[in-house]
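Ligand: protoporphyrin IX containing FE. Inputs:
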Amino acid sequence: MYEPDTMTPTIPASTSSSLPADWRDLFALTKPRVMSLVIFTGLCGLIAAPERIHPVLAFTAILCIAMGAGGAAALNQWWEADLDAGMKRTSKRPLPQGRLDRTTARDFAGVLCAASVFLMGFAIGWLAAAILAISIIYYAVVYTIWLKPRTPQNIVIGGGAGAFPPLIGWVAATGQISLMPVVLFAIIFFWTPPHFWALALFVKSDYAKVGIPMMPVVAGEKSTRRQILIYAVLLLPLSVVPWWIGGTGAVYGVSAIVLSGLFLALSLRVAVRERTGPDDAMKPEKQLFAYSVIYLFALFAALVVDRFVVL
Ligand code: HEM
Ligand SMILES: CC(C)=CCC/C(C)=C/CC/C(C)=C/COP(=O)(O)OP(=O)(O)O
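Predicted complex:
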């Protein structure tokens, strides 16, 4: 396991007492901004699928994805409260700030996760429920507890967790797994390393401080930049596969080429760049991170638009 230089567990002592749970803190525990894209990709998977389900069932399926993903994110923060307290970016979260006690967070997370899987199973189907359960375990246990503190490949392997939502949406609509949702899974899987390492480059010192072996900390900036480029290169043809296999029309295909082309251009700029010093604002890295989020929203929106527009 990667050995940290220093550990700074600085959670206020008040977390051990029982605090009244504020709904805003519980909501924050679900990482709502990250989850907005998780929910969106799940919804797009459901809409892009060739079969329709009743709107109430569709709403229920998306609610289950939101509850499961939010519950897993809450479990992640329950487990990592000490680490979060030591990092500038995460130190304002409810647990490190002592606004919520750990038992409440754990119970809230457990209820959300269990309810999401059972509701999905009873209302939609047990295949979708099983994949939802796998993705929760993947994020909360395989990534958070096992991979994240051990290997710089944590987010490459762990990226699978966040790639499941469109597959779950698709299976909720059709009841089965086919090639298209597997390709959608692969697109998010290959998108995750550039998405995350762009951010990791400019918060590297945070991760180093608490001993998390993120790629820039372990392999260095140069290697991380090169690896970002490799994934962006692979992502371009992969994002066009849905069109190539006849799963979508030209609206999606052309959008994928344009969006992925820009993704590649921004990644290339990050890859060839040398940091100029400690005051370097890392603007290209921040732009790539911001664009990665826009990219995935736009790509999945194109998938849905394509379904309704016939050229
Ligand atoms: C192992 C995989 C991933 C890792 C390690 C990761 C990590 C991160 C981190 C650390 C942030 C900063 C969030 C914050 O400061 O609270 C972030 C932001 C974000 N992530 Fe990811 N991410 C992953 C996968 C995903 C996936 C699969 C999605 C959605 C499909 C996603 C969507 C987002 C969004 C929308 C933001 C921006 C949130 C904001 O506006 O602050 N991420 N990600
Ligand atoms: C349905 C379901 C369970 C979906 C999974 C949702 C999902 C997006 C998983 C990806 C993992 C993720 C957001 C990691 C954030 O990294 P981190 O937790 O290491 O970030 P932090 O340092 O901000 O805590």
